[in-house]
Design brief:
The complex is a heterodimer of chains A (about 400) and B (about 350). Chain A has about 400 residues and is α/β, with parallel strands linked by helices. Chain A is built from 13 helices and 14 strands. In chain A, helix 3 packs across helix 6 and helix 10 crosses helix 11. Classes of the chains: A alpha/beta (about 400), B alpha/beta (about 350).
Chain lengths: ~400, ~350
């Protein structure tokens, strides 16, 4: 275990299985999925493709996130702010100050609003609605809006590396803290379900028309979800000085790239294995030290085969209990790494292995079976959390008991 | 394990000709904007067939990134980090159009794949078979400097030998047209070279790419050391002067030690005033600017860094961009300060 591991002192999230971390934990333990028919997003795919929507309109989200000025907030920014507020509240952290940063992540940013009015961006006399949202089209906008809301004045930036984005945001934030450039950081990501992304994944033909079945032999693709999820990270010194107790430690981090194909991961899982292996090395741990794995586990043919194979090889046949919580939340893309890092901390704190829902038949490519039922009472000290992105951008985080 | 961080290779493609060189070939004047990145012959780096199918931002980034590696004598870096405020807007718009105009009827997967923001960094990794760290920052005016900070951390503090880091942006016609409603661009320009005399608001718009190889071992007189990198977001520009002072001081220097300060005014008469206090802080330094040459865009400070390195390696700057002091000199300590909309503040300290 590394001596300079960064402390997690606060967590916040909004997902399809709950508003707030406690609600998420309750749903995970009760095996309540968030995947269902699309009811909020206006799309011709309604009724045909399921998704994991946060069951709240933008107005309700705005009431929870409570921005000082409600104008110009996209759904993605609201999901982010709601999660950030919960995380900083739990940490008891005042984020104003020159050494407290915000490292955010997203894949689509504010597209959820701009896609609905995009054709009107070209009008010579733009409407109030166009003027309200035209500046929200770029990915970094949500992070600046949240930083402004919190009165921050420090390092603020946005990572966008597809499905590994917010795991990478947590990794970068932890590195900035370890290098002494920051005392603390809010790190995570947000993505709202939108037509652009839904049609993108649909065009790749990797969306399951039913609820997804990660690591199942008959799996047929992923379901998209939406979420905001952030953690507060601090140096041990800074946390101690404030009297903030660590919930967990960010103990290891590695990002690798397969350089194999623009979208697919290598079938032999070599890229995934390397990310996990390097994360273990960065934490000073061996494979047998890992007591739980939160997999990337999207439910696509390609990912689950290569990730299953990679785990089988890394753990030399003795794969620890592993789960895909995407069977609850769907794939929340830019938020997924942070959602699952929080679930990793919950696994440690609740001593829980979470179920992988709807698993019924064994994977053909590797002899690995996920945890089928949620249960608590286990001793869990080190959790590996995988986030593997488009184009083979592979990230592994290791969260450890304090 | 602290190590010194050196820029050992650089390459630039933009509205000014300088690809494959350490200094601009000449200064090109424009009377309309956005100023477009000139595309040099990239056939030595990008297969022309493949290049034609790529979005411009991917093509020029690939050419630029691969040339920076070649000039550094690095075949395969340990990490690749890209900063871009818009990512692949060209492909995003193409996919947008097919989703929205055809009512979600069978849009093209190719445009979607190419619209993924980390596509450029991924293409570079594929080209040199780099299986190491691969990151992309999309954060407005801090996009490139976030990438530079990450790379500097890896080489300077985390034991990496070399990292390829770059900034790239291409402004599409649609993006330029639609974003005019925000007031960010000038409606029209007379000349890019006189744009800093403007009395109206709005920026001169441009685009381009610049890539750098950072290495823990210098390569003779063409190497420039990156002493420090700092990024910050601020709700307003208050507090920036003490921040700049702190930045210089934390590197064991005094304001009088800076030979050249490279600033980022873009022709917006109001926002450009934000640079005045920093220039006033460094009365001995040559004061120069870079955006009259490249225009304003999210990753413009990558060109700013390229021009700083050029001045340090060649001992001169185009006189057109020197506001104060001499265009020729032995520039040993250089400060790059850029802000975007007075909110995203970037500082880079260089030494030779």
């Amino acid at each position: 275990m590394r001596q300079d591991a960064v402390h997690v002192t606060g967590m916040g999230m909004v997902t399809a299985i709950g508003v707030g971390v406690e609600a998420n934990l309750a749903s995970l333990l009760a095996e309540r999925t968030g995947i269902g028919p699309i009811t909020r997003l206006v799309t011709r795919h309604r009724g045909k493709i399921p998704a994991a929507e946060v069951r709240m309109g933008d107005m309700e989200l705005s009431a929870i996130a409570a921005p000082a000025d409600t104008r110009g907030w996209t759904r993605a920014a609201l999901l982010g702010l709601a999660a950030v507020r919960e995380a900083t509240l739990q940490a008891g952290l005042d984020p104003r100050g020159p050494r407290i940063g915000l490292i955010s992540a997203t894949t689509a940013g504010g597209i959820d609003k701009s896609e609905g009015i995009y054709d009107r961006f070209f009008d010579n006399a733009p409407s109030d609605e166009v003027l309200e949202y035209i500046g929200t089209h770029d990915p970094g906008e949500h992070a600046e809006r949240i930083a402004h809301e919190l009165g921050m004045s420090s390092v603020v930036t946005t990572v966008s590396t597809a499905c590994s984005s917010s795991a990478n945001a947590i990794g970068f934030a932890a590195r900035l803290i370890r290098a002494g450039l920051l005392d603390a950081a809010i790190a995570g990501g947000t993505d709202a379900l939108n037509k652009f992304t839904l049609n993108g994944f649909n065009s790749l033909m990797i969306l399951d028309p039913q609820a997804c079945r990660p690591f199942d032999g008959t799996r047929a693709g992923l379901n998209l979800g939406e979420a905001g999820a952030y953690v507060v990270l601090e140096s041990a010194t800074h946390a101690r000085r404030r009297g903030a107790a660590p919930l967990a430690l960010v103990n290891g981090f590695a990002n690798t790239n397969e350089a194999y194909h623009a979208t697919a991961s290598s079938p032999d899982g070599e890229g995934a294995r390397k990310a996990m292996d390097r994360a273990l090395a960065s934490a000073g741990l061996r494979p047998q030290d890992i007591s739980h794995v939160n997999t990337h586990g999207t439910g696509t043919l390609n990912n689950d085969a290569s990730e299953g194979l990679a785990m089988h090889r890394l753990f030399e046949g003795k794969v620890p209990p592993f789960t895909s919580t995407k069977s609850f939340t769907g794939h929340t893309l830019g938020a997924a790494g942070a959602v699952e890092a929080i679930y990793a901390v919950l696994a440690i704190r609740a001593g829980a292995h979470f179920a992988t829902l709807r698993h019924g038949s064994v994977l053909a490519e590797a002899p690995v079976v996920p945890v089928l039922r949620s249960s608590s009472g286990h001793a869990i000290t080190h959790v590996l959390s995988n986030s593997f992105g488009f184009g083979g951008n592979n990230t592994s985080l290791i969260l450890s008991a304090p | 394990m602290k190590a010194d961080v050196h820029i050992v290779g650089a390459s630039m493609i933009g509205p000014q000709p300088g690809f494959g060189r350490d200094a601009l070939e000449r200064v090109v004047a424009y009377d309309t904007h956005p100023m477009k990145a000139m595309e040099p012959d990239l056939s030595g780096y990008v297969d022309p067939m493949r290049g034609r199918r790529m979005a411009k931002v991917a093509r020029i980034s690939l050419g630029c990134g691969l040339q920076a590696l070649e000039r550094a004598g690095v075949a395969r870096p340990e990490a690749i980090i890209v900063g871009t405020g818009l990512g692949c807007m060209e492909s995003t718009e193409r996919f947008f159009a097919s989703v929205l105009q055809q009512d979600e009827e069978a849009p093209s997967p190719v445009a979607f794949i190419q619209s993924t923001h980390n596509n450029v960094a991924g293409q570079l990794a594929l080209a040199v078979k780099c299986t190491g760290y691969n990151f992309t920052y999309l954060h407005r005016g801090l996009s490139f400097t976030s990438a530079l900070l990450d790379a500097w951390l890896q080489v300077g503090r985390e034991g990496a030998r070399n990292v390829l880091a770059g900034g790239a942006e291409v402004i599409t016609d649609d993006y330029f047209i639609t974003q005019r409603h925000t007031g960010i661009w000038k409606p029209a320009i007379k000349s890019n070279l006189s744009v800093l005399n403007s009395t109206d608001t709005g920026a001169l718009c441009g685009e381009g790419a610049a890539f750098f190889v950072l290495d823990n071992v210098p390569r003779g007189k063409d190497s420039v050391r990156i002493r420090d990198v700092d990024i910050s977001w601020r709700g307003d520009a208050k507090g920036i002067v003490p921040h700049v002072k702190d930045f210089i001081r934390r590197n064991g220097l005094a304001p009088g030690d800076i030979d050249l300060v490279m600033l980022g005014p873009n022709g917006d008469a109001v926002q450009d005033r934000g640079y005045d206090p920093t220039a006033a802080l460094l009365p001995q330094a040559t004061v120069a600017t870079f955006k009259p040459l490249c225009g304003e865009y999210y990753a413009a400070n990558a060109f700013g860094l390229w021009l700083c390195r050029s001045a340090m390696v060649t001992g001169g700057l185009p006189p057109e961009v020197v506001l104060h002091g001499s265009a020729r000199g032995d520039f040993r300590r250089v400060l790059l300060y850029d802000h975007y909309q007075l909110k995203d503040h970037s500082l880079v300290l260089l030494e030779r």
